[in-house]
Design a protein that fits this description.
This protein is of the alpha/beta class. It has helices spanning about 15-35, 55-75, 100-110, 130-140, 165-185, 190-205, 215-250, 270-280, 305-310, 315-325, 335-340, and strands at about 1-10, 40-45, 85-90, 115-120, 145-150, 260-265, 285-290, 295-300. It comes from Halolamina salina.
Amino acid sequence: MTESRLLVPVDESASLRNTVAYVVEEALARADEAGSPPAIHFVYPLPEKITFRSGSPRVDAARTLLDRVASWAEEDADGADVTIETALVATHEYLSTPNDYADVLVRYANEHDLGLAVFDPRYDPIGSTPLLPSLEAEVRRAGLAVEEAPRNVETPSQPLVRRGTLTQFFALFAASFAFYLLLAGSIAPFELATGTISAGIVAVALWRVSLTSAIDLSQTAGRLARFTLYVPFLLWEIVKANFEIAYIVLHPDLPIDPELVEFDAAVWSALPVTTLANSITLTPGTLTVDVERQHMVIHTLTGSAREALFAGTLERAVRFVFYGRAAARIPSPFERRQQEENE
């Protein structure tokens, strides 16, 4: 393998344009030194997703990005003799760890005789987990040379510690105090005193870190009240699902029908999405495998578990908690699926 033949994983990022310019320059410089023709392979890992439609917006967006990257590279090459290739990879695989992504990239590099992987400094294919340092280490461990493009585009970083308010302080204090008493299982004077001290320490240390947005007391109170209704509802759903799974386990034929399904949940922001994903996992028969923004991949054990999932009962309940009663009156995932198929 020659290091004038480069592998460049791509995804949307603020520094992608500069990375493309850098790899073209590097490929041409290395080709002059090695006396071999340069080649650049831009690849977009797109793990398999189960979709309701034959066409996928994720695939279209990935191909559009690769076309844009190829145009940038041809512009930067300015007529120089350099081979530019683009490819979607891992379209029939499920990737979740740095090692998974590294295996795909190294396999592609070996198949196409590529000697160097150049990474965009802001490359983050998962979108919610910083992957690049571990990914570079795994690729290097597999025997492929690794380089990171210069970080030419800087965006102002958000301060970790922000200006806090007394409302945020007391909200965090109250939450910490209630959690301490819940764990203690007692409201004896000793527990009240130690809980007050512990909650005070937590509030002082974290009130400008944990709570970084303004708190609307009426909205928060409403959500807490609705959440108290949601907890027994969720427990009832868990109990029902437990009876169903127990029946399946005890049945001589073990009538299971496992399948991975996916849908776009009608909830937004981290807390509602996390609440729904965890609620699905807590309900026996369904397991949240992957979450990308509000797009969820769920493992279902039985057909009835899938029917319950697509009926949208849990989704509506979570919307009720965070957005109110009116927001719970929406089409179910199954109904939204039918609408998409008819469009």
